[in-house]
Amino acid sequence: MNPISVPYHLVIATALFTLILLLTVILRKRFFISRKKKRFWISAVVFLVVYLLIVSSAIYEDIDAQIDLNSFDLDGDGFFSESESTPEQENAMFRLVNDFGRNISFITALFISFIISLTFYFIKRSIGFKNNKRKINSSM
């Protein structure tokens, strides 16, 4: 049975972005000074949360694939003999070995998170413009 291991690049990215998210939440009073800055920082928090969700799901999938493959190692030596080699074991091995998407998830998560947070920012901004327009029209 092989020990469960998580790729370091995923662990480092998750730890770093979790730390940044925690600092943002702890120091939110300093960041949320004006309305414009508040929209920016809320979008930054959305970016961090989406990024962490994507990378954390990649870590979960990696651990799940390793556990699934380890379940086929009957004698616990870390190798698969002919008696342990089955089509299900080969599918589990294929799922673990073909992990290109999981390994680059920390990069693709940057792009996806940026697009989602930018969309969120512009939606919040347009809602703010509509509210300001209503205030101006109602004061006249």
Structure, briefly:
The protein has one domain (8-135). The protein is 78% helix and 0% strand.
Alpha-carbon distance between the two ends: 75 Å
Query: Measured on Cα atoms, how large is the radius of gyration?
Result: 23 Å
> What sort of overall outline do the alpha carbons produce when their principal axes are compared?
elongated
Number of DSSP-assigned strands: 0
Structural class, from helix and strand content?
mainly alpha
Mean pLDDT: 84
The parts where pLDDT drops under 50 for at least 5 residues are: none
**Count of distinct structural domains:** 1
Q: Which H/E pattern describes the elements?
A: HHHHHH
Total helices: the number is 6
In percent terms, what proportion of residues is strand? under 5%
Main β-sheet description: none
Share of helix among residues? over 70%
Provide structural commentary:
The protein is mainly α. It has one domain. Helices cover 78% and strands 0% of the residues. The chain contains six helices and no strands. Helix 3 (35-70) runs antiparallel to helix 4 and helix 3 packs antiparallel against helix 6 (105-139). The longest helix has 36 residues, at 35-70. It is elongated and about 80 Å long. The N and C termini lie far apart (75 Å). The relative contact order is 0.15.
